Amino acid sequence: MLQQTQVKTVLRYYSKFIQRFPTIESLAIANQETVLKHWEGLGFYKRAINLHDSAKVIMQRNSGVFPNNFNDLITLKGVGKSTANAILVFGFGKKLAILDANVKRVIKRIFNIKSLSRRDNEKFLWVQSEKLLPEFKIKDYTQALMDFGSTICKPINPICTKCDLNKLCKYTFSSNKIKKVIKNVNKVCIILKYKKKYLVFKNNDGLFVGLYGFDLVDKNKVELFLKNKIKIENILTSENKNTFCITISNKKMTIDLLVIEISKTNDLENFKIVSETSTLDNNLPVPNFVKKIFEKLH
Ligand code: SF4
To answer: Which terminal residue of the chain, N or C, has fewer Cβ atoms less than 10 Å from its own Cβ?
Structure first.
């Protein structure tokens, strides 16, 4: 849950998730939609899918016993070298280096690494982070390094003036404040209606993989999209609804809602039919912005 997500955000989800899936077995036997429903709103949904897959693998291969060695951990989906090492450090007290985004940034700044190629960079960072490992208290050290990266040596505007490493750090940081770059994007949300109900489609990839929602299409591609997705003769009515804005990651999206009533659903795949309110109440996992769209449709 903590991959690319702050602790304060995860805290709202972790307890509920653990209550619903207290064991590896309970997670393994759940269906994917239930797992995603309990992850709903946390983002990066691929993590939930990978966690669920890993629980199944651990049940089948290890009879439900969580692996305590690198070779087994690295075969689990979504587990790379740094995650495997982090599990071994925090779960089993092994003396290993981790290289998550926070640790990477701290080491890069302290040694002022800019010019190496990406591969050499990665190698250098692993060597440095292994050299820095302390003899004792590996868990405290690892946690402290990650916390240092997320609270002091932050991605944007690190607090160098209050940093204890200021004197040895080689980072030449411009005093100008860096602002997060937000991109403006315009999209049309295609909402298909059938017999007074709505069709939501499962995302097979992307940011909302596994969740249900509507198609977001570039304004100039709406016609082509409709031609490919539904036969034009199946369109009964088409109506422009309100426009609304959301910010997802670094994108500010202006979304026009286009409601299209269709006469058949035969040619469509991977969808569920829901009423205006049912996506808000039932067990179907949907992104928050889809809930907002349903509120607009009322
Ligand atoms: S001095 Fe600034 S850039 Fe260097 S480690 Fe400290 S916070 Fe990070």
So the answer is: C
